[in-house]
Write a structure and sequence with these properties.
This protein is α/β, with parallel strands linked by helices. It is built from 11 helices and 13 strands. The protein is globular. The mean pLDDT is 90. It catalyses: alpha-D-glucose 1-phosphate + UTP + H(+) = UDP-alpha-D-glucose + diphosphate.
């Protein structure tokens, strides 16, 4: 008899139903995920990250007024025809790139009941397979393949894997926080507990959860029973806390269904587009690193800064 191996993770879920109120009035009629970061909408960076990690089946959790997301990842034959007639192959390739990244699917969240509820909306599509969740406010530099590393850890250990980043203690109240113990891998920890946005005095560590998850499908069973938590929303952190606690306390394999929760400690380049200041800083950093924009833009930036000093 041949040994049975779990299927390679191929599905990614991207919650994109938020209202983007921090960016009003820009997001009154435009989804915040479509705000440009240099010359691509923020959401395209996230889909590119999933595709580069081998996750070519992408489900976007959307809501009202999110139709531009579907249009962006669809073909635009009129525009493509116009560019083709002009012989503008470079722009034609950029337009077609977004529609060729992955097989895209969409489902509406309906009531905005939090991240845990958004993830639960993916259950019919995901089925009984491990899957990834990528939050659009965190852009991970493609030179730092965090998601691919998380997929590797999940395939080796089973269970769920979350992305962690060390932050200053006075910043931990802005994040979900993990209690951890070390493993044999320097960038991997075992998660023994989780708490959503703790006060600094109550935080079990300075390991903050950032917006990347690889989840065991048993998380759906827990989310269905999870009551609204902080902010009156169904928190994904609360469900993962239950998974971690159950695994830590179970005495036998049957009690450990759903597997452990591990964390990958990320020390690479992360661009936070979740608020206006960080969004602007992300644009500047990414523009400075572009070969086609960086040299001229950096020269102007140096001149501007020197004049303002």
């Amino acid at each position: 008899m041949t040994e049975s191996h779990p299927p390679r993770i191929s599905k990614a879920v991207i919650p994109a139903a938020g209202l983007g109120t921090r960016f009003l009035p820009a997001t009154k009629a435009t989804p915040k995920e479509m705000l440009p970061v240099v010359d691509k909408p923020a959401i395209q960076y996230v889909v590119e990250e999933a595709a580069s990690a081998g996750l070519d089946d992408v489900l976007m959790i959307t809501g009202r007024n999110k139709r531009p997301l579907e249009d962006h990842f669809d073909r635009n034959y009129e525009l493509e025809s116009a560019l083709l007639k002009k012989g503008d192959e470079a722009r034609l390739a950029k337009v077609q790139e977004s529609s060729d990244l992955a097989t895209m699917h969409y489902v509406r969240q309906g009531d905005p009941k939090g991240l845990g509820h958004a993830v639960l909306c993916a259950a019919p599509h995901v089925g009984n397979e491990p899957f990834a969740v990528l939050l659009g406010d965190d852009l991970i530099d493609p030179r730092d393949p965090l998601l691919a590393r998380m997929v590797d850890v999940q395939e080796r250990h089973g269970g769920s894997v979350i992305a962690l980043m060390e932050v200053a203690p006075e910043q931990i109240h802005l994040y979900g926080c993990a209690a951890v113990k070390p493993t044999d891998d320097s960038d991997v920890v075992e998660v023994t507990g989780l708490v959503e946005k703790p006060d600094a005095a109550d935080a079990p560590s300075n390991y903050a959860i950032i917006g990347r998850y690889v989840l065991d499908p048993h998380v759906f069973d827990i989310l269905r029973k999870t009551e609204p938590g902080r902010g009156g929303e169904i928190q994904l952190t609360d469900a993962l806390q239950q998974l971690a606690a159950r695994y830590q306390s179970a005495a036998d394999a049957e009690g450990k269904v759903g597997g452990p929760v591990h964390g990958v400690v990320f020390k690479g380049r992360r661009y936070d587009t979740g608020d206006r200041g960080d969004y602007l800083r992300a644009i500047v950093r990414l523009a400075c690193e572009r070969e086609d924009l960086g040299p001229d833009f950096q020269a102007w930036l140096r001149s501007y800064v020197s004049e303002e000093m």
